[in-house]
Design a protein that fits this description.
heterodimer; A: 227 residues; mainly alpha; Cytochrome Bc1 Complex, Chain D, domain 2; 8 helices; 3 strands; 35% helix; elongated; B: 224 residues
Chain lengths: 227, 224
């Protein structure tokens, strides 16, 4: 009888192990919650499914027809001129000034906004970090247009050090980062305004290095309109 | 008159006790092994609407984690990228791949791809990604070598006990800030140190330097 009992227990253990497996085994099944206490609260969480809103999203979109302060309906053109040369300090574009748009009136401006240019080497270091995260995948770490993605079929990558781009005013490069250009997507939604300017400063440094003017990297000039 | 019970019946109570004792040990062992998040949560690997490979993107291409999870340094929630971010490349690369159909649909309609969340903390625990990233706790501490996973699976239990293990000894996880998204990085041993000792020494130095003081006995630190 003892043999039968232990035999049965051994079989049960083997079956149990066979069914339940070991720790760390890969499974598509969600785990059973024995005590879920207050783990699931009826509150909305970022990027989660919502059972409250009709479209099933916890993240709400602006109501149709919402216009950012200072912008007109197209979202890019100036409504007032009073703000154009004021340096804003917000995270994302909230005023149509040079800091947020790269434009001075109807033309692109040149130069890094003064309160950022003051940061000097810190700004460049930040620009390098953000460039390596966001831009190097296509443009390459030195901006030569030869990032790792090139081997995967993205053929229309511009070298950031070419002559045409060296001639572009800073505001135009800022605008390209913000809204994208031809096959390049818009990076405005994922890079903050200050970081975009830091990247512009770093791209300028890369261009100077490519030209062999390393000493000129430290130079910063005040913002001015460029025709 | 024959005896009702055979001779062997004398041992029946002993045998019952033996079997019960075995059960009494086996059942807690099974519960200890199976009713813990180390079993119930580690290895959770749900199928995603698009078979996105972190191994290709983060490992092979060398994309920084923050290319897609762009607000992890500034927000409590580490964001899933918008379709726009995927389309930066996939408007051209693999643009007709049927596996990417849900992405193209999301791009066209604005209705997001419904990725399945793997790493969950209970709603009463307020985990903040940015706090950890900015103090030098690497992604790998909680998520494992995502850059080597074709399909992401949960690597750590994310139980409260597990949180506290690190909160009590943060020196084992702190690293230089520029190595936070470098998942393969480890501390360089000096002399005869092991990697663990090197990490501990570096971590203690960084902890002092950054004033890292994670909540251990203060419940409200994580449960607001």
């Amino acid at each position: 009888m003892l043999k039968i009992s232990f035999g049965a227990l051994t079989i049960a253990a083997v079956l149990g192990l066979g069914f339940a497996g070991f720790r760390g085994a890969k499974t598509e099944l969600t785990h059973v919650e024995w005590f879920n206490d207050m783990s699931h609260q009826p509150k909305e969480q970022p990027q989660h499914h919502s059972t409250f809103f009709n479209d099933g999203r916890s993240a709400r979109q602006p109501v149709a027809g919402t216009v950012p302060i200072g912008f007109n309906l197209e979202g890019r053109y100036f409504q007032t001129e009073g703000n154009n040369l004021v340096d804003g300090h917000g995270g994302f574009a909230n005023q149509p000034d040079y800091f947020n748009t790269g434009r001075m009136g109807d033309v692109y401006g040149d130069g890094i906004p003064a309160f950022l240019a003051e940061r000097g080497a810190d700004l460049l270091a930040r620009g390098q970090q953000r460039f390596d995260i966001n831009c190097a995948i296509c443009h390459g770490k030195a901006g030569q247009g030869n990032g790792p993605i090139k081997a995967f079929g993205l053929m229309t990558i511009r070298a950031l050090t070419d002559e045409g781009l060296r001639a572009q005013p800073d505001g135009q490069i800022f605008n390209t980062i913000t809204h994208g250009k031809s096959t390049m997507g818009a990076y405005g939604p994922v890079i903050t305004v200050e970081d975009r300017w830091a990247i512009v400063a770093y791209v300028r440094a890369l261009q100077k290095v490519a030209e062999g003017k390393l000493a000129a990297v430290a130079e910063t000039k005040p913002a001015e309109a460029k025709k | 008159m024959p005896q009702i019970f055979p001779r062997g019946a004398n041992f029946v109570p002993l045998k019952i006790i033996l079997v019960l004792a075995f059960l009494g040990m086996a059942a807690p062992a099974a519960i200890w092994y199976y009713w813990r998040p180390e079993y119930t949560k580690i290895g959770y690997q749900p199928a995603q609407p698009i078979p996105f490979s972190h191994k290709v993107h983060a490992g092979q291409l060398g994309l920084d984690c923050r290319y897609c999870h762009s607000f992890v340094e500034t927000a409590a929630h580490s964001n899933i990228p918008a379709a726009q971010v995927c389309m930066n490349c996939h408007s051209q690369v693999q643009k007709d791949n049927p596996k990417l159909a849900p992405l193209r649909e999301a791009w066209a309609t604005g209705k997001p791809v419904e990725w399945v969340q793997i790493h969950k903390t209970p709603d009463h625990a307020y985990f903040n990604h940015s706090v950890h990233i900015n103090r030098g706790v690497s992604c790998v501490s909680c998520h494992g070598r995502v850059d080597q996973m074709d399909v992401v699976a949960q690597d750590q239990s994310l139980s409260m006990d597990w949180c506290l293990t690190c909160h009590r000894a943060p020196e084992n996880a702190l690293r230089p800030l520029d190595k936070v998204t470098d998942l393969g990085w480890h501390a360089t041993p000096k002399g005869k140190e092991s990697i663990e000792q090197a990490q501990e020494n570096l971590g203690k130095e960084l902890q002092k330097q950054r004033g890292v003081n994670p909540p251990v006995s203060n419940c409200a630190g994580c449960h607001r």
